[in-house]
Amino acid sequence: MAKKAKNDGGGFDRISQFPDKILCRILSCLPTDEAVRTSILSSRWRYLFTSLCSFDVDISRLFTDPISRQGFAKFMVRMLYFRSESLEHFRLKRIEDCYLDFGRLYDWICAVLYRNVKELELHISDWDCDSLDDFEGLPPDLYICKSLVKLKLAIPFRPPPKEVPSCLLAHLKEIEISEFRGDIHLLEMIAYFLLNARVLEKLTIHMNCLEEQKRFSMTNQVLSLPRSSRNCQVVTDIS
Questions:
Q1: Do 112 and 85 contact (CB within 8 A), yes or no?
Q2: Closest CA to 189 of 160, 228, 146
Q3: Residue limits of the F-box domain (predicted)?
Q4: Alpha-carbon distance 29 to 55, whole Å?
Q5: What share of the chain is helix, strand, coil (3-state, %, to 5)?
Q6: Angle at Cα 112 formed by Cα 33 and Cα 183, nearest 5°?
Q7: Hey, how many other C-beta atoms are within 10 angstroms of the C-beta on 110?
Q8: How far apart are CA 96 and CA 201, in angstroms?
Q9: Beta bridge partners of 175
Q10: β-strand 119-123 against 89-93: which pairing, if any?
Q11: CA distance 165 to 168
Q12: What local confidence, expressed as pLDDT, does residue 51 receive?
């Protein structure tokens, strides 16, 4: 008869007896740093976080010194590339300092695209350092990603690429853009998305950064852009 796992209080740890798949689902509901801390509390859970289907990474929650953050960044890249399972969701948010350069950020994005991520969410527009000017946009790996169906972005946009990503042509169904300020490159990218995303169902643009008159003008301009998908709904939000 299999032994039952005991918890620290002398009782039985019923949760740890769940199948790995269910435990991974539980950990995937937590921010990544909390999932990692939870995993190391028990030998039964120790390596489960490497098989998570969803990652929610908030750099500001992880470490306070640059050396530890760089070490975690390298660990994340190795873990993402060498896992066997596909990813459902990856969110990277609140990068507010220069402890991680954009090269490392590119490594993470490329790794999750390599693992056939379905939903990708990036929040890096609040990077408050001069290196933001060096950001060249999303990596070329996005152009050949066939799994991506949902993309949420708060990033500094650059002119649209010449090559149309395959995910836009046949897979991408939902795009959400935050912190829209009427930037010409971002407007060009929105036009690019609408023109090339053939199965796009919804494009949401958050315009809470604009004054009312500017918001009204930008909304009319966006709604007048040609769309490749007849079923695409364009939503402008101010919340």
A1: no
A2: 160
A3: 12-62
A4: 9
A5: 40, 15, 45
A6: 95
A7: 18
A8: 32
A9: 151, 203
A10: parallel
A11: 5
A12: 77
Q: Does residue 224 surpass a pLDDT of 50?
A: yes
Describe the crossing of helices 102-114 and 66-82 by its angle, rounded to 10 degrees.
Answer: 20
Report the DSSP beta bridge partners of residue 152: 121, 176
- The better pLDDT of the pair 53, 64 is held by 53
C-alpha 184: how far from its chain's center? 24
In degrees, rounded to 5, the angle at the alpha carbon of residue 113 between the alpha carbons of residues 107 and 116 is 145
Q: Which two tokens stand for residue 107?
A: 């490594």
Direct distance between the N- and C-terminal alpha carbons of the chain, in angstroms, rounded to an integer:
57
**Predicted model pTM:** 0.76
Contact between residue 30 and residue 43 where contact means Cβ atoms under 8 Å apart: no
Please provide residue 203's backbone torsions phi and psi, each rounded to the nearest 5 degrees.
-120, 115
- The C-alpha atoms of residue 69 and residue 63 are separated, in whole angstroms, by 6
The C-alpha angle 2, 52, 36, rounded to 5 degrees, equals 85
pLDDT tens-digit series, residues 163-195: 676 677 778 899 999 888 888 888 888 998 899
pLDDT at residue 132, as a whole number: 47
Q: Give the Cα separation of 143 and 169 in Å (integer).
A: 10
Do residues 155 and 121 lie in contact, with contact meaning Cβ atoms separated by under 8 Å? Answer: no
* Closest to 105 measured CA to CA, from 74, 84, 148: 74
Consecutive H or E run containing 5: none
SS3 117: coil
